[in-house]
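We were asked to recover a plausible sequence for a given structure. The inputs and outputs are reproduced exactly as logged, with field labels preserved.

PROBLEM: sequence recovery
POSITIONS: 285
GIVEN STRUCTURE:
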């Protein structure tokens, strides 16, 4: 096993962008009411089709959240088929007059990712037993076939619809690469075992929280992004706290900033712009 490639295969799906904005409330309040109403309606017309997403195939969807805490006021989450399409979503928003009152404080670019530790070990071992040299044309062809087959089987997870839960918790993370522990120097079987144990914790919360993992190596400052969706925000605290005791987290995980928001249906944006978050908006599901 030591001679097999150390890098697990991964599947990639929707390109993902998180945008966190500070809203310029003072400037907004100085506008006459008719002007504020016009801007709100224009924004709804621009964003509602993307919130709804496609009925079939890849959803290519966006969702708006009222952000809690000092890190921002609004958070937009976009799922698209490519980074270019994410850029188009940015540009579309920038053409709205509402954008004049938004100050982007943070963003995060990543792609929905599924790691294939089990399939990687089985595939690498089977090819080695056949005497196929790693990274040879025959090896690469076999690996591409595995990825294509798994991608077709996992399409709903790779190109998901944004869950309609009330709350979103997003945070980026890394695996340690120094000091006493280095994730990338651990063997493939060790990492597989730790990830299986780590995933078992998440599966116990499957009825309460939906998790979407995105990869950001080469795209942003951290290695992965984690989106958690739930109707009860306390489940975020319980799940993440329990995972702190897991070996993969306690020895190898580093975490970035946490961002949390309440789902804000785009048609309720005028209420939010007037300082209200109605029960109807909070109960969106």
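RECOVERED SEQUENCE:
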């Amino acid at each position: 096993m030591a001679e097999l490639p150390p890098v697990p295969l991964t599947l990639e799906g929707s390109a993902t962008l998180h945008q966190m904005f500070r809203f310029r409330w003072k400037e907004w309040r100085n506008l006459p009411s008719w002007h504020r109403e016009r801007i709100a309606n224009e924004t709804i017309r621009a964003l509602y089709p993307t919130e709804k997403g496609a009925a079939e195939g890849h959803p290519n969807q966006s969702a708006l959240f009222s952000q809690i805490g000092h890190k921002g006021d609004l958070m937009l989450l976009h799922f698209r088929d490519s980074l270019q399409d994410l850029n188009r979503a940015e540009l579309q928003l920038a053409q709205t007059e509402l954008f004049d009152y938004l100050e982007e404080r943070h963003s995060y670019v990543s792609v929905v990712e599924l790691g294939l530790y089990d399939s990687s070990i089985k595939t690498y071992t089977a090819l080695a037993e056949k005497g196929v040299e790693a990274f040879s044309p025959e090896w690469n062809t076999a690996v591409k076939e595995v990825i294509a087959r798994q991608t077709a089987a996992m399409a709903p997870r790779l190109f998901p619809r944004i869950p309609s839960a009330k709350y979103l918790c997003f945070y980026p993370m890394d695996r340690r690469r120094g000091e006493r522990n280095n994730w990338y120097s651990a063997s493939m079987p060790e990492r597989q075992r730790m990830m299986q144990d780590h995933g078992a914790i998440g599966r116990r919360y499957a009825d309460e929280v939906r998790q979407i993992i995105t990869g950001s190596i080469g795209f942003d400052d951290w290695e992965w992004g984690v989106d958690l969706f739930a109707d009860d925000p306390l489940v975020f605290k319980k799940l993440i706290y329990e995972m702190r005791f897991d070996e993969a987290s306690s020895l190898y995980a580093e975490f970035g900033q946490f961002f949390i928001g309440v789902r804000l249906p785009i048609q309720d944006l005028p209420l939010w712009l007037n300082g209200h978050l109605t029960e109807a908006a909070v109960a969106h599901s």
